[in-house]
Amino acid sequence: MENITEGIIRVPGNLNFYNFVVFVCACSVVCAVGLVGNTLAFFVFAMDKKKTASRVILHSLTVSDSLILLNTVFEFSIPFIHPHTKLLGVVFKVYKTFSIYTYPLHYFFITTSTWLLVLVTCHRYYAVCKPMKIRNWMRVKNAKIQCVCVYIFGVVFNISKFIDVQSANYQYCTSKTDDICYKTVLLDNLALRISYRIILTTVVMYVIPISVMSYMNTKLIIEIRSSNKKKKYIGGATDDDDGEKINIILIVVVIIFVMCSTTPITLSQIFLSFGSYMSAEIRFGYLYFLPILILLVAINAAANCYVYTIVGQKFRRNLKELCSCRSCDQDLEISLSVQARSNKSNLESKSSGLDNKTVSNSLTSSTIDPI
After folding, report:
1. pTM (2 decimals)?
2. Residue 86 CB neighbours (<10 A)
3. Beta strands in the chain (DSSP E)
4. pLDDT band at 252, cuts 50/70/90?
5. Better-predicted residue by pLDDT, 259 or 353
6. In sequence order, what are the residues at sequence separation of 6 or more whose Cβ sits closer than 8 angstroms to the Cβ of residue 241?
7. If you ran DSSP here, which 8-state letter would residue 50 be given?
8. Considering Cα of 258, then 205, then 295, then 307, what sign does the dihedral take?
9. Are 139 and 290 spatial neighbours (Cβ–Cβ below 8 Å)?
């Protein structure tokens, strides 16, 4: 069935259906599952009374991952309902107006998520491999300040994207088909293209994070293996199973990050910078590749909570308490039990003091009690 738009006869293409499957169906499911998981993780970390620097950073990481998922839903999943189904036409027009502002936000959320992961990697590395160094840096109060600094860095690093992007819009891909795609047009400045989009973005978002996390996680793996050998040698005793679980969680999260996040960012920046020099076939092929890149980023943001649940025994226990609403009852029982024991101890000490005073007075009536 032909579609006549602005006097141009357009034939149906395949990209609208492909985008509907990937963006609307797959991404929406991933984002929904991830938002539920990250919300639960947020409350689990919030109710955890044993605050550590690593948990504070992981708490902040759930916020950044949730923002990535929300941005994916509003920037990609909802707008691509209309091109295939012809529904939500008014919403689609609104998104065409505001998409230029949501594009830089997506990179801001990814930047904060990436560097929070680097930060928690550094914390675990020094806690396990060099526990006696920079102990002040590892405190909970300082960890909160460091998280704020990461968010400030994310704003500063991505502020130029609001200037760099000339248009980020949903428009027809070709002059013949009715396929609609997400197109971003950046400033045609060769110096900016090479220095910021390629070199700086690749170094800040790929080279440094991957290098730091690869080195520190390798050291963590070696330390965990060495620790396991020592535990087997002394009969399986352990002093910090919780810390070891956090190390394993971190290693798995970093592996997922490398596979699903950094590579898509780098490839998208290369194409945005040099896409105009590529052939029409490559540019059109990238339109099929872009939804997969967005889906991988969403998977990375959605997976962390489920890694915590699978690996972290304490996280599972706290999550179970949160879901069953038993935490408040248990806290009340514990506080009443502690108060009862305290009252009993005070009564016993008073009784013991009276007995000792009576005995002392009867034995030495002339002795003066010390002040």
Report:
1. 0.76
2. 11
3. 3-5, 8-10, 165-172, 180-186
4. confident
5. 259
6. 313
7. S
8. positive
9. no
Locate tokens 């036409």: which residue? 89
pLDDT at 364 over 80: no
Bridge partners of 4? 9
Question: What are 5's strand-pairing partners?
Answer: 8
Q: What is the DSSP letter of 195?
A: I
d(CA 299, CA 259) in angstroms, rounded, equals 10
Long-range pairs, 42-51, Cβ under 8 A, ≥24:
42/66, 43/322, 44/315, 44/318, 44/319, 44/322, 47/318, 47/321, 47/322, 47/327, 48/318, 51/140
CA 328, CA 199: separation in Å to the nearest integer? 51
Residue 183: per-residue pLDDT:
72
Q: What residue type is assigned to position 1 of the chain?
A: M
What the block records as the tokens of 2 is 């032909």
Q: What's the pLDDT tens digit per position in 175-211? A: 777 778 777 766 666 676 677 767 787 788 888 888 8
- Containing H/E element for 25? none
Of 93, 104, 105, 74, nearest in space to 166 by CA = 104
Residue with the bigger pLDDT between 228 and 7: it is: 228
Of 299, 332, 349, 313, give the one whose Cα is nearest residue 65. 299
Contact at 8 Å (CB) between 38 and 304? Answer: yes
Among 231, 208, 228, smallest CA distance to 121 is for: 208
75 neighbors 113 (Cβ within 8 angstroms): no
